[in-house]
Specification:
Length: 171
């Protein structure tokens, strides 16, 4: 059975085709400049917070910054262009913590380059959504057919762009 990860939740909200390809073992992001920028931001943005914030591995998710004293997750992103997907990923982290018995966890979603912060907490409606997201990912994983190209502006910067638009590239 598939272990749904936070990355799966994120990609579900960006592009189901990309998620399906990743679920099938196709990985093209190791050479993506955008991914490299995000890793650099992760490594440099909050280096002074290392003592307070701990990295924790939940098996299906790795939370980079967690304060066990306040039960707070800190998620750092480079841009808010896909904020809905970032929020979904953080809600999944919160749901996982709750499943582990951590009561009333909270999260801060930060965009340091924009000087923007958003606080997130679970509620019954969000919990219901997270369960739906997991089921949708499990369905995609079991489906033999690749979802269609979505043709959005975000496709231009995607590591899978050439894969998805190969027929347009050769015509």
């Amino acid at each position: 059975m598939l272990t749904v990860t936070a990355q799966h939740i994120h990609y579900l909200h960006i592009c189901k085709r990309k998620l399906w390809l990743i679920l099938k073992g196709v990985s093209l992001e190791t050479t993506s400049e955008r991914v490299m920028e995000g890793k650099f931001l992760h490594d440099t943005a909050y280096s002074k917070r290392a003592k307070r914030w701990q990295e924790i591995d939940l098996g299906s998710a790795k939370i980079d910054h967690y304060d066990p004293k306040t039960k707070t997750i800190l998620e750092v992103k480079i841009s808010n262009k896909m904020e809905w997907a970032h929020e979904a990923q953080v809600y999944y982290y919160l749901w996982l913590l709750q499943q582990m018995g951590i009561l009333d966890p909270s999260a801060r979603l930060e965009y340091p380059l924009l000087k923007k912060t958003k606080t997130l907490k679970l509620n019954p409606q969000i919990i219901e959504e997270v369960v739906k997201w997991k089921k949708e990912i499990e369905y995609l994983e079991s489906n033999i057919h690749c979802p269609h190209v979505i043709k959005k502006t975000i496709c231009k910067n995607c590591a899978f762009h050439d894969f998805c638009y190969v027929t347009e590239l050769i015509n």
